[in-house]
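During the no-cost extension, the postdoctoral fellow (Dr. R.K.) reprocessed legacy sequence entries with the updated structure-token encoder. One reprocessed record is reproduced below for audit purposes.
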Amino acid sequence: MRCAALMLFSVAAVDAQAPPPPLQQPWEGVPPAYRNLPIGRLKIPTTLEEWRAARRQVKSVVLDSLGAMPPRPSPSAVRVVQTIQQDGYRVEKFVFDNGVDSEVPGYIAIPGGRQGRLPAVLTLHGHSSSKENMFGFQPSSQDVAGLLARRGYVVLGIDNYFNGERKGKGPAGDLEVMARGPDQELSLFKLNLWLGRTLWGMMLRDEQIALDYLVSRPEVDPARIGAQGMSMGSTRAWWLAAIDDRIQAVVGVACFTRYEDLIAIRALRAHGIYYFVPGILKHFDSEGILALVAPRPLLALTGDRDAGSPPEGIKKLEEILARFYRLYAKPGAFESIVYPETGHVYNSDMKRRMADWFDKHL
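Re-encoded structure tokens follow.
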């Protein structure tokens, strides 16, 4: 994914004698005009009552930044088109019409030999990835469906607007899968702005439709739903939890990003255009979005060399979010782990921690 167009890989993965690249110092080289932007500050409440009074307005700002969100279609319209038997679970391929501009394909993994309603995880892929990667049909470190399904979770994931089977389904059609053709992500970004929407809002809307289907399944306990993802999928997971209280636990791998700190290291280019929304920084930085997840369990797993996650921003988010979780007397429900000399990766330890987090909290 392009949470990092500049992916920095683990130092262990490169020549041991090659020195790591120098780290960008905050604000070094940033022109003076961009050092004092009119960025709003989230007021950190001192009591839970104060936060509960402010939370409604914070959520309203977040929702407004996403633009117009058309009504979602009924989950009863989802069509199952294929069933694939795997070791210990089955995978159903499904398709739904999002009611606006796309047919959306996805997979759902159902554990075998389990009784009653099960916990479930909505899994969200990264930029330039797909549902195939998450469900093991194409090799990728984002393959998590089998791991979770064998632990007893129903797992569901869809293709994002400009990935997987949805390539070539944008405004320019098949031109957008041709070499030297238009970029479908940019086309969708531009068109949605004209229509009073945002691409990011429409991406989250598709995930909400997928969530509607997930909670409608008879195998699923709708009170035990988690969301996890890497990179672009990580960001979607915590944004989705911020706007949809049905998500009860979150794991985000990479892209634990504070936007002002991204500007400070001259790394706006490290994120794709898909998630930029109008007006959000007039009110607050990403801590305003992440604070809406509290007190639901949130685990962030980030490499200290992840180009899209400035370490200074990670530290600020850790300090601010810890204060929100303490308001709820649930300090253990938020955890941030920073992996030293590690880039934009989803490694085996992260996967283990992800699964253990859901075992503990769902």
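The first helix runs from residue 48 to 65. The chain is about 30% helix and 20% strand. The remaining legacy entries will be reprocessed before the final report is submitted.
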